[in-house]
Write a structure and sequence with these properties.
Layout lengths: L1 H19 L8 H32 L7 E4 L2 E9 L12 H14 L4 E7 L6 H21 L8 E7 L20 E8 L20
Parallel strand pairs: 3-4
Antiparallel strand pairs: 1-2, 2-5, 3-5
């Protein structure tokens, strides 16, 4: 909602500037109203696309222990993979959910922009945990691309390491810290259903904890 109002305000200011620059460039009220209506329609379309993707994910992952939420124009699928202590090897039991995720995205949202987020428990140093989180994110990304068939330039990776505000069980490590050693998936842009893939921006850098 905030982003919509910002765009409308920006357009309104732009039209006002043109109107004040001279009568020869005066914008008709009908043109102004049409531009505002188009912005609102585009925003509504994007929201509908995200709603549809959220519903698809919830239906597809009903049999899995995965929490799906929509957050400010993004869809997050929590805990798609967990890792053994100090390991970045993808477990076989996590692959079916990743297979289903890749299937939904490739079939219905091929131009979606996906971010794979890697995490670690707080047992090691901050720097080591960021690197370990990145290895885990890359393991999931490679699986989604090589096995799931997602476009390599549409799947990014980022590591949050042991970030305190992102730990599921704060301070837990080793056997008790499995929930902190995880990877989550975020669909930053759902795209149009059935649209062809578009170029993605460069991969996001590792974030500080």
């Amino acid at each position: 909602m905030v982003s919509t109002l910002s765009r409308i305000a920006f357009v309104a200011l732009g039209f006002s500037a043109i109107a004040l620059s001279g009568c020869s460039q005066y914008v008709k009220k009908t043109d102004y109203d049409a531009a505002i209506a188009e912005l609102r329609a585009n925003d509504q379309k994007q929201q509908q696309q995200l709603d549809a993707l959220t519903q698809e994910m919830q239906q597809k992952f009903a049999a899995y222990d995965a929490k799906i939420a929509e957050m400010g124009g993004r869809v997050r699928v929590d805990s798609v993979a967990h890792f053994a202590f100090n390991e970045a090897t993808l477990r076989d039991e996590d692959k079916p959910l990743l297979d289903d995720f890749a299937k939904v995205i490739s079939q219905h949202h091929p131009d979606a922009l996906v971010t794979v987020e890697g995490f670690a428990d707080p047992a090691g140093s901050a720097g080591y945990n960021r690197r370990l989180g990145m290895k885990r994110a890359k393991a999931v990304r490679d699986y989604l691309v090589n096995t799931g068939g997602l476009s390599a330039d549409r799947v990014r990776t980022v590591s949050y390491g042991e970030a305190v505000n992102r730990q599921v069980d704060p301070g837990k490590t080793h056997d008790e810290g499995m929930s902190n050693r995880r990877v989550t998936l975020v669909v930053d842009f759902a795209g149009s259903q059935g649209a062809a893939p578009a170029a993605a921006p460069a991969a996001a850098p590792a974030a500080a904890p």
